[in-house]
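seq:
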Amino acid sequence: MGPLRGFKVIEFGSIGPAPFTAMLLADMGAEIARIDRNDPVELGVQRNPRYELNRRNRRSIGINLKCKEGVQLALDLIRQADALIEGFRPGVMERMGLGPQACSGINPRLVYGRMTGWGQDGPLAQTAGHDINYIALAGALNYIGIKGQRPSPPLSLLGDNGGGGVYLAFGIVCALLESGKSGQGQVVDAAIIDGVTSLATPMHGREQAGDFGARGENASDGNVPWYSAYETRDHKWVTVGAIESRFYRELLVRLGLDKENLPGQQDKAGWPALRHRFEEIFSQRTRDEWVKVFEGSDACFAPVLELAEVRQHPHAVARGMFKVVDGIEHPMPAPRFSRTIPEVASGPALAGEHTEIVLLDWGFSDADIASLRTAGAIT
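struct:
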């Protein structure tokens, strides 16, 4: 199993990036027990839980945290855990009696991972928000999109998953490494706005150096003709990213333009004409015809694929990037390891699906479980 095998984690069921963090840790082999509420949470968008793939590789316990027996049960589980993941607004866990102080009091080695949009403090800490809001205030959204048009949110990849989920997972693993040396746990305050700001570190340097333009005016945002997407004859799209001169020369050869008198690659005044010529050429063939033209080249070319196409692409197949579990294709864990190999062992768990078996595995007796059920702590 994965490199985190042997670590035990309690996840408090929530929406947003916290479940993505738990998936990353579970993919790496951590044993995660997800505490789900007995009453459903309003998510805004109803989805079939079978396809909530970020809930894979872990089991779910249904606990009533509105009764004292349920809270005590959560504490008894936390007592055995190496780490905890929660994704509520600041103060929610404290009001339930499950805040960092209460938990560290019974488990001093606990790594307490907190996921929010705005952070645990600051003037916005208690306000609601979503991915688009966090990346906007972090300055990232302003630079994403086409020049002269409104900013284009990049799904939830940049905020929720990148600046949020991945950073919390990284923070928890760092804290676990430190705890192994010091014997002490700590709180990991992962805020999406912090993570996205960190991701933008190189851009902050370039902006302060006067080397970073507005939306649609930078080399890596589609502004230049040799780093952009082009529509093909069948109204699909391809990309080129030929930044280096040798790759640019290869691009021109594959396009059949190496003999034409075109503006130079770095001739900004000639970029509109160059882009127009590229558009003309790419529109003459289908996307898949261009794939064949560029096959095996160093022109930095790739087709724009839909998700279903990704799963069937020869490179994805050759690398085993997907695995079918219960009839659903899952992306495999990343990154890869030579010895402690991560795995997708199970699909998404339904809320409370494994209550009894998890409690038995974590040392509770049949009598304990019966008593909890009678008290209304579990169903």
